[in-house]
Design brief:
Elements lengths: L9 H11 L6 E6 L1 H4 L6 H12 L4 E7 L8 H7 L4 H10 L15 H7 L5 E2 L5 E6 L3 H6 L12 H7 L3 E5 L8 H7 L6 E10 L2 E10 L6 H11 L5 E6 L2 E7 H15 L14
Parallel strand pairs: 1-2, 1-5
Antiparallel strand pairs: 2-4, 3-4, 5-9, 6-7, 8-9
Amino acid sequence: MTAVSELLSGERAASQLSELGVRRGGVLLVHASMRSVGAVEGGARTLVDALRRVLGPDGTLVVPAITPENSDTSPAYRRSVHGLSDEAREAVRAAMPPFDRATTPAPSVGRLAEAVRLTPGAERSGHPQTSFAALGPAACALTARHRPDCHYGEDSPLAALYESDARILLLGTGFDTCTAFHLAEYRVARPPRRRYRCVVTVRGRRRWWEYEDVDLDDSDFAELGRDFEESDSTGAVRTGRVGAAYTRLVRLTTAVDFAAEWLAEHRADRPADPAKAIRP
C-alpha cells in the first residue's frame, strides 16, 4: 500500500508546474498520463485543480476529448472488430452510440482529460470525433470554432490555440501523443485526404455521417518530436518532473511550424494506406 507521504499533493504539483514554466494567465493544452504521474492525493481532480491554480483566474486549460468509439473508420474500431465475422461487425456498428457534446465520454484520452470535461462550466467543441474541452475565460472562444468536417485544421480549436500562443504540457506522455502536430498536417502543400464516417444525431435521430478530411497519421510523431526537441535552440521545450512523470512544456507555435517543414520533407513520397479506405 502506498504511504501517505508518497502521495503527490495538489500544493506540490502546483509548485512543480510553476517551476517547469507553466504561465499564469496563459493557455495550456494538456496531454496527461496519470499512471506516469503516480499516486496523487485526490486523483485526477487534484491535478486539474493544481493546473488551474497555476494558470490563475485569467488562464485557460484545454484537453482533447476525442471519441473514436462512434466511428467505423477509426483505428479503434478496426482493432475491436479484428477477426470478427461480418455479422459480428455489423452488431458492433449497430451498438455504437451517436455523439452528444454534453454526455459522450472520451475514455481514450485518460482520467485527467475526462476530469476537465466533467468539470462544471467546461466548454466542449462540437466535432463528433475530435472535440476539445476547456476551462477558463477563453474556453468559449477556443472551442467555438470547430467545423464538423475539419478534425484539426484551420477551423478547429488547434488553430485557435496556435493564434493564442498556447503551450503544450506533455505530462508523462511523449510527442507521439502531441495532437498539435496534426495542425501541421493541414499546413503542408496538398495534404492527402480520405473519407471518415461516424454516428451522429440529426433532428433527434441516429444516423451515419460520412465526410472528407485530411488523412491523419500520427505514426511518425515520436520521431518528429525527437528531431524537434534535439534541434530546439530557442527554449521552446522545457523539461522537468511532475510527481514521477517526466514532463515537457512546449511552445505550440514553434512545434507546429517545425512540424510543417518536417512533414513536408519526410512524407513527400509516402504511399496511401489501403487499410484506411472505406469499403462500400
